[in-house]
Task: inverse folding
């Protein structure tokens, strides 16, 4: 009897897992057909924001212990 209950449980779990996989596969297919790729170029404001963000990141990456303690006077970072 325990073997029969285990077989039914395993079969039910496999069916639920397979059903979820199939539903996800179908949903992915439907989403990929409806979503169109965007070929628009970024506007001026977005371009300036990206450049400012890149500049801030470069300043952050060039900051060092020497800059923090003022040991490299010639290479100071302007804030």
Result:
């Amino acid at each position: 009897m325990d073997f029969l209950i285990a077989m039914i449980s395993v079969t039910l779990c496999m069916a639920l897992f397979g059903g979820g996989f199939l539903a996800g596969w179908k949903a992915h297919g439907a989403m990929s057909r409806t979503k169109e790729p965007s070929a628009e170029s970024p506007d001026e404001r977005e371009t300036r924001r990206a450049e400012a963000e890149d500049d801030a990141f470069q300043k952050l990456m060039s900051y060092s212990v020497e800059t923090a303690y003022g040991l490299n006077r010639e290479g100071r970072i302007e804030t």
